[in-house]
Amino acid sequence: AQSVTQPDIHITVSEGASLELRCNYSYGATPYLFWYVQSPGQGLQLLLKYFSGDTLVQGIKGFEAEFKRSQSSFNLRKPSVHWSDAAEYFCAVGAKEYGNKLVFGAGTILRVKS
Amino acid sequence: TAGITQAPTSQILAAGRSMTLRCTQDMRHNAMYWYRQDLGLGLRLIHYSNTAGTTGKGEVPDGYSVSRANTDDFPLTLASAVPSQTSVYFCASTLSNTEAFFGQGTRLTVV
Fold first, then answer.
1. Does A99 contact B at CB distance below 8 Å?
2. Nearest CA to CA, how far is B108 from chain A (Å)?
3. B30-71 pLDDT tens trace
4. Core-most of A35, A86, A101, B27, by most CB within 10 Å?
5. How much is the mean pLDDT over chain B?
6. Is A109 an 8 Å CB contact of chain B?
């Protein structure tokens, strides 16, 4: 079965520090990969996506992610975190072979301390 | 553009009652989805529809039903609500092989 693991439930970083959120997946097909962000009481906003090509993808708000097929990972990074980045982040995986239905990780809550 | 509209925004429902959560999109996306979001579990797929006239079961379909009479609308019905259906429900849509766009969610409390 398809699954997505986000090992860190909570992460706290200082403002200005770098950030890496981990995402690992188990999929029996070539995946599409996404990172979404959710602020409290809001819907989900797409940060970035990977379908094919360059394995390092750039997203909005200064985020990037790297697809590593050998590690089945798609970790999200940001070189310098801002207080407004505090939110919950979800990794999601889909595949054409599974009808493009997205499977989500459990989420990582990011706290930013000043 | 409106994108995806969900209604109501929130609802308190007595156990045993029925309710329909509404979802409308104006992007002419072929596929639509219903997810529920629960703390520590992320989003789990309830039902989906790849195109008007077809629906399928997701990961947690029990107690829910959907219909897709046209491209724009994808209502989710709880026939007889139970407290375990207390959750935040998100509707989403996609064009083939693209990212999903989400509504703002419906917060449902079953008491």
1. yes
2. 13
3. 999 999 999 888 999 999 999 999 999 999 999 999 999 999
4. A35
5. 94
6. no
The CA-atom distances, in angstroms, between B42 and each of A2, A88, B68 are: 14, 10, 25
Which residues of B fall within a CB distance of 8 Å from A46? 99-101
State what percent of residues in chain B have pLDDT above 90. Answer: 87
How much is the pLDDT for B1? Answer: 58
A56-60: Cβ within 8 A, 24+ apart = A59/A35
pLDDT, tens digit, 9 for 90 and up, residues A8-56 = 999 999 999 999 999 999 987 778 999 999 998 888 999 999 998 899 9
Q: How much is the pLDDT for B97?
A: 65
Q: How far is residue A25 from each of residues A67, B26, B46, measured CA to CA in Å? A: 11, 32, 20
Q: Is A101–B40 a contact, with Cβ atoms under 8 angstroms apart? A: no
Contact flag B102-A32 (C-beta cutoff 8 Å): no
